Amino acid sequence: MKKIVFVIAFLSTISVSGQSAKEAEKLVKDVINKISSYDNFSAELSYTMINIEMDINEKKTGTILVSGDKYRVEMEGQIIFSDGVTLWTYIVDSEEVMVSEAEDSEGGISPTSILTTYDENYKSSFDNDKKYKNSDIKKVDLKTSEDKGFQKLSLIINQSKLSLESFSVYDMNGSVFTYHIIDLKPNINIEEGTFNFDADKHPDVEVIDMR
Questions:
Q1: What is the full DSSP assignment across 69-118?
Q2: More confident call, 40 vs 3
Q3: Would you give the DSSP letter of residue 134?
Q4: In Å, what is the CA distance from 151 to each residue of 112, 147, 170, 191?
Q5: Most buried by CB count within 10 Å: which residue of 73, 152, 158, 206?
């Protein structure tokens, strides 16, 4: 009798676990589909980078603009432009801009790939150990068997609003990069040239072409 009870309990655990994974995947897809349905969007960002072993706890704030595979991130003295083909990293104080191929520089991960595309190679699962006062807030971990240069992604999602509150990237060196999304505004007016670095407007900036 005890063996039968154990088997039933074990099978129930597998069933719940499988269902939970499917629900987590569906929730992530629903959120990404909502965001990708926008023509474009802007948001304020709060960024932290933590590495306990190296005693690093860095915090910054900034803004992000996304339109399709194009994006622009401004964050305390640094502006990153990408038109989907070329990536410019402009360091304002140093008066230099590094130019690279968008695909190569992103290493398979970028704001657009996280916010607007679901990779079918990811395995989604709820982090049931993480509890929030607001029961609508869920944490979903995304892991992949492919070599993407990071261990996993974690998304904090408002289930009722289908909104992404924050996302974290856990890299291979023990660092955790977290972006909190504040006041996301969809379908805004974006000026032409927003996603390109215009060297003519910055004649004193040194261009370092890494392509």
A1: TEEEEE-SSEEEEE-SSEEEEEETTTTEEEEEEHHHHHTT--HHHHHH--
A2: 40
A3: S
A4: 19, 9, 5, 36
A5: 73
CB half-sphere exposure, 69, CA atoms < 13 A: 10
Q: What are phi and psi of 22, to 5 degrees?
A: -65, -40
Q: Is the dihedral of CA 204, 205, 210, 211 positive or negative?
A: negative
Burial class of residue 75 in the structure, from the number of CB atoms within 10 Å of its CB (0-12 exposed, 13-18 middle, 19+ buried): middle
- Asked if residue 131 has pLDDT above 80, the reply is no
Q: How confident is the model at residue 13 (pLDDT cuts 50, 70, 90)?
A: very low
How far is the first Cα of the chain from the last one, in angstroms, to the nearest whole number?
A: 68
Sheet holding 122-126, edge to edge: 122-126, 137-144, 150-158, 163-171, 176-186, 41-51, 56-67, 70-74, 78-82, 86-91, 96-101, 206-209
In which domain, by residue range, is 195 found? Answer: 2-209
- Give bridge partners of residue 59 from the DSSP assignment: 48
Q: How confident is the model at residue 171 (pLDDT cuts 50, 70, 90)?
A: confident
Q: Does the pLDDT at position 155 exceed 70?
A: yes
